[in-house]
User: Fold these one by one.
Assistant:
Number 1:
Amino acid sequence: MSQESPSTLSHAIQARYGGLASSCCSLSCGEALELSAPTRGEVFVDLGCGRGRDVVRAAGLVGTGGRAIGIDMTEEMLEAARKGVPPFLANVSFLRCDLAALELSDQSADVVISNCTINHAPDKAAVYREIHRALKPGGRFVVSDVIADKPLPESVRQDPGAWAACYGGAIPESEYRAAIEPAGFVGIEVLHRSAPYEKGGVLVRSLTVRGYRAAVANTRGGSR
């Protein structure tokens, strides 16, 4: 996209998801929470948490000794998420920040998930570098996302509305994996790949990927 596109893209995404904050429709494209299987005492992070339903569910799974953190860029979604937290859950928090610059400490999370969100990011490799940085040694990510069946036409890639609608930023699977692998993950595997389906006149798929930060800590770099 053009140089002025980041703010245009952000506006389009926030306009769409701000309106969906009060909707009851599903915004997920996979089962990242179930497949990530958070357990007692873990720190769980949901990137693009939306109305926070998976965060609340994860909070119950990790228990009082763990934490469940939701991250989103849309204030309306975060407001809806905060309202949806039962008063007895004290281990839930929400942050508003860019996925390519997570406001999380180094090696602070056991599990990171995302559902149909990273496709919105112009620099997907930067998002995966941040996921790797935030994960503890041995930590895991499970991401469900939208990918393109083949490279999208430039007219779609230049359309902020298409990006906001979860297909303009989709890239082919080979490019998507190329955004993950340099971050340093191990054990990367595709857990689910849907049949192609039409969206906005182009063919896309839903892809669910899992990977791990190596169990041996990388001592390079400082804390954020």
Number 2:
Amino acid sequence: MDPITRVATPIGQRALLITTLAVPLTGWTIHALTLHRRLAAERRDPLTGAQRRAAFERRAQRLLARHRQNSLLCMIDLDNFKGLNDTHGHAAGDAVLAVTGERLARWAGPQGVVGRLGGDEFAVATRVDPQAGMEQRLRELMGALREPVPTKAGPLTVAASVGTAVPDYLGIHALPTLLRGADVSMYRTKHSGQYGWAEIEDLQAPTVNGRRAGRPGTALLERAA
């Protein structure tokens, strides 16, 4: 047998074996990447980039437990959003929601998490640098939310109501209770252009099927329960 043939044959066999093994491995890699992207997409709201409720709650609870002494939770609700949709159209409304999601993510930073809880309602959990202070960080948040939003209908200024719950101040780190307190404080300052702080008594607000009693829509939930 030709020496060249004797050398080339094992090499060719190894190459064939490697190729044969690589094909299913490549297929599994592509499948895994596709699955990962699909799961990530299911966890995120496609319009705003915010986490959907379940994913937000998991990440926010971990963050609040890890940073007990320097974290805060905010509930954000856009004021008169239905009127904006009715006046300027749904495309403008979608632009406002998308920009709001971006601004909240930028404000929360890489250590924070933003969730879209439904409609024009968002929640943010984040760690606060003690040197920056809670008040300063919240003023920065209000300033970011007040910036006009560029839309095809022209720049739109959208007001937002913000309620805040500080775990260390309240002595509570359970996310559902903190969300309730932030929700109460948000509606207490609704349309005022200011942010509110949750107090101990706010944590005792009754709920209807997981929502604070008295909120818009809870009457329907009571009748359906």
Number 3:
Amino acid sequence: MTDGPGTRSQRFFARWYPDLMQRAEDAGQADIRARHLARARGRALDLGTGNGFSVPHYTAAVSELVMVEPNPGLRKQLQRRTADIRATAWEIVDGDAYALPFPDASFDTVSASLVFCSLDRPEAALDELARVTKPGGTFLFHEHVRGTGLLRVLHEVATPLQSRIADGCHLNRDFLGLLDRSPFEVTEIEHLRMPGPPARITPMVVGAATACN
């Protein structure tokens, strides 16, 4: 694990993002996480754990929790939340979503929450997640997606600025299209709006998929 200061974009994002997203958590997103992550079982990988909003919602059904977070500032915040971990074993890893440092078929459950919007190569990250998931294992996803109609136009216009100030976040990312072309097969999906202003205008998908590798 590297503990350097990170890039300017990473440092800026780590300063403002947790406080902003706490509003969405308080408005109902924490409840969505709890309901969703209650399905995690066995050895679990959480990709892009950030400052740890998801951490308290993994149950004791998870025997080991591996948290991958490349942003040094967020990783320091995450280390302060380890008391919330219910799994018997846990690890925080400074990892690359395109080259995860784990053997094939390492995990029973993999999860990502508000991660795929900011990846430069989301298709490669989905392939890599599938590689480390056991055949028949579960991918739990919780992602914001591009809107439709006028909202889609707004997302297209706002994405260049959003990407600069939010460490690569793309409001116009077609996550469902990416997932359809991935090695995962969607088994459950729920269409929601991110709770709390101003995030309420942001569509989300929360669901599960099975690794078909």
Number 4:
Amino acid sequence: MEKIIVDAMGDQCPIPVIKTRNAVSELKEAALVEVEVDNETAVQNVSRFAASKGFSPKAEILGDKRFRITFEASPVSADPEEEISCQPDRRGDTIVVVSSATMGTGNDELGKTLMKGFITAWQRIVSIMHI
């Protein structure tokens, strides 16, 4: 089986996805595709693209800011008009902005109690889900 290496080191989205799409669209027969990137957002977006084509991507960490996504690909036609979707990294720190000390309007004491309950519940969810 032929091996295709896509070097997307230093490229920001959507370039890694576009390079991967172009490599897959040029295949004449099944091949092992290896895409090397330097950020986790690219890992997620290239993996999402490969999965959308029916491939089973596997990602691995090679070192500091060095990742490889590998999948077996068969020839598929690539539509140059196909929209490339790049989503920001959904992992990591979550920021919640609260613009009021109370929840709702009316009774401020009740609003403060509700807000305290909300914040406490959110902290528990975050600690359980590690988000």
